[in-house]
Amino acid sequence: MKLVPVKTPSVAKRLFPSYLWDVKTDSNTLYLTFDDGPTPGVTEFVLETLATYGAKATFFCIGENVLKYPNIYQKILNHGHAVGNHTYNHLNAFNYDVEIYMQNVKKASGLINSKLFRPPYGKLKLPHGKQLKLEGYNIVMWDVLSFDWEASVSKEACLNNVISKAKKGSIIVFHDSLKAEKNMTFALPKLLNYFSEKDFTFEKIEI
User: Which terminus of the chain has fewer CB atoms gathered within 10 Å of its CB, N or C?
Assistant: First the structure.
């Protein structure tokens, strides 16, 4: 049983109103996001698939992966997508004090030119969130989780998680990682096709 729901409860959004959970819009727009890259092969698949549908997305990158694969990171930018900070090496805020956590975020910011930030695991203590906001970061969470990384979730269920829960303005989480590759590469093209046929567009997050 998953402790974290596919659809973010409205109470969570009310408790943390300064975090971005979805985008208020009347248009048929969805916001795809991809965490944990760049990853050789996987990120390129995402970029090629998005390009097929003229879709834009936001990539929350791990700093050490950007350092390892700068050419792939540059491809993300060249394709016109947005990037965000996902810490330097995927730190869980629950395990680190504010000073160490922020040092890690700033190390990543030396490689990732963005004030968009998503905490790994979606975990953020109040003092960490406060400090991030003080330093000008926009904290981006989500409205819908695909659970593409979860081995117990089938590729069909991964697709259905998004199709059944996404609505206008939803911020949707996928991962361009090896762990998520099987589910994500199945779900993403079908998701793009499904919503494109319903006249939805896919945009990057801009704050």
Answer: N
| Mean pLDDT across 99-122 | 98
Please report, as a single letter, which amino acid is at residue 157.
A
Q: Residue 1 pLDDT more than 50?
A: no
CATH number of 131's domain = 3.20.20.370
Q: What is the pLDDT of residues 124-171, one digit of tens each?
A: 999 999 999 999 999 999 999 999 999 999 999 999 999 999 999 999
Whether residue 120 lies inside any domain: the answer is yes
CB 4 within 8 A of CB 147: no
Q: How many domains does the chain have?
A: 1
